[in-house]
């Protein structure tokens, strides 16, 4: 394959993995451990 094609596929794969991990962290089981700073400091 062309080097540019390999680079594009690699960058796309990295972006997909980062997006998947972010969605899993935000909405999956680890989200129960996240705290909301606005709820922590209500007046």
Topology:
Layout: H1 3-27, H2 37-40
Low-confidence stretches: none
Question: Cα distance, first to last residue?
Answer: 60 Å
Q: How does the major sheet shape up?
A: none
Number of strands: 0
Number of helical stretches of at least 4 residues? 2
Residue-averaged pLDDT: 90
User: β content, as a range?
Assistant: under 5%
Class of secondary structure makeup: mainly alpha
Radius of gyration: 18 Å
Shape: rod-shaped
Specify the helix fraction band.
55-70%
Walk me through the structure.
This protein has 43 residues and is mainly alpha-helical. It contains two helices and no strands. The protein has helices at residues 3-27, 37-40. It is rod-shaped and about 55 Å long.
List keywords for this structure.
rod-shaped, 43 residues, mainly alpha, 2 helices
In a few lines, what is going on in this structure?
It contains two helices and no strands. It has helices spanning 3-27, 37-40. The N and C termini lie far apart (60 Å).
């Amino acid at each position: 394959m062309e080097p540019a094609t390999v680079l594009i596929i690699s960058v796309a794969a990295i972006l997909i993995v980062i997006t998947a991990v972010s969605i899993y962290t935000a909405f999956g089981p680890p989200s129960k451990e996240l705290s909301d700073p606005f709820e922590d400091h209500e007046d």
